Amino acid sequence: MHVGTAGEVDDGWARNIPPQAVHMGAACWPGPLTLVRTRGPRSGDHAIGGQTTFGLRVPSHPTAHELLLAFGAVVAAPCADRFGRASPTAVELVLDELGTSLDSRRNVVLAGVDSHVGVESTIMDCTGASPMTAHWPQPFMTPMSCRPCPKLTWAQLLAHDRRTARRSRVRRRGRLSVVTLTRSAAAVAAGYLLGTVPAADLAGRLVGVSVRTAGTGNPGAINASVLLGKRWGTAVAGVDMAKGCAAGLLGRQVGPATAYATATAAVVGHVFPVWSRFQGGKGVATSYGAVVGVFPAYAVPDLLVAGAAARLTKDPRRANDISSAAWTGAALLWWARRLPNLWGPTPTVALPLHAAATSALISWRFRQPERVSGGMRLGDPA
To answer: Is the terminal CB of the chain with fewer CB neighbours within 10 Å at N or C?
Structure first.
């Protein structure tokens, strides 16, 4: 729970407040110190989740402190980050972290100056006879940073020595890192599997024509359009784009870097599907779907550049090279300038890496010989 001053919490919110807790609050608040106290009769389950204790702090951030002082009561609020993620220090990072879960009709993000510290506060357990250190994340709240308080002895305050606290911190960070890496790996694997969905092959089976043995032999939207008809070709393109977009959105649930990695995995899955002996399509439609999911700010320009390049060059390979170069350049620009990305994740260095990797893969695929020679091509008479 958050308050503007320590005096706003009386015995109705907390029970059996030890004098050490009062002294610590007077010495270190406002500041990065959380005191764990025993709940009182006014502490409802809706605020503390049915627990018997709760954490109390007076934040030092000027915007948050001013809001709490104006409100004049207790505010129950968690951190603005998901489990296993670093605490955000700017409003843009909060929106990137929770934007997909916020309802614009009910939720408000209060913008203020950036926080200079992005780690958890020091946590002191004040439910027993003597305070005990429960969590000591970094030396941002140290004995020297609190105002002198003669009634408080730091021998009591630091009942657990720093070596024990440091080992606890390392173990906790290790667990969070394992959780994040596991979720990222699972998302990337799921993105690859999404990319392997054989849309053109499935459409060909429904019609009774194999897209791998006729036309160019490429299991993609253009070959499907030539062999099966424009409606089937459009459907195949839609499914292929949906694969890339869904993979990017799935990865964003973990974080921006994972979103770009998962989108890249979807393109890799389309080009090298495990179910078809790693013989897949060129990945253009899947790559564009990934752009819609993770780089939506460039979705329309990407279409315009690709269309103009196709008309000017009359060569699919050269048109792809031009549009890929423009896409990679745009990704570098958005990352370097931190430009807005609509509903996509915050541009990080993973964005230009994603663009460069998928561009190189698609360019390589365009330069491979066609799997069927002499077959019907786009533009040939029926």
So the answer is: C
* Count of C-beta atoms within a 10 Å radius of residue 188: 22
Tokens standing for residue 216 = 């160019």
Q: Which amino acid is at 271?
A: V
Q: Give CA–CA dist 33/116, Å, rounded.
A: 15
Q: Are 270 and 195 in contact (CB under 8 A)?
A: yes
In the block, residue with structure tokens 């008809």: 229
Distance, in Å, from the CA atom of 102 to the CA atom of 349, rounded to the nearest integer, reads: 26
Measured in whole angstroms, how far is the alpha carbon of residue 34 from the centre of its chain?
A: 27
Write down the H helix ranges in the chain: 19-28, 45-48, 62-71, 91-98, 154-157, 162-195, 199-207, 221-228, 230-252, 256-271, 284-294, 299-313, 316-337, 350-366
What are the pLDDT digits (tens) for 223-275?
999 999 999 999 999 999 999 999 999 998 888 889 999 999 999 999 999 99
What does the alpha-carbon distance between residue 197 and residue 228 come to, in Å, rounded to a whole number? 18
Distance CA 213, CA 59 (A): 67
Looking up tokens 């505010």 gives 75
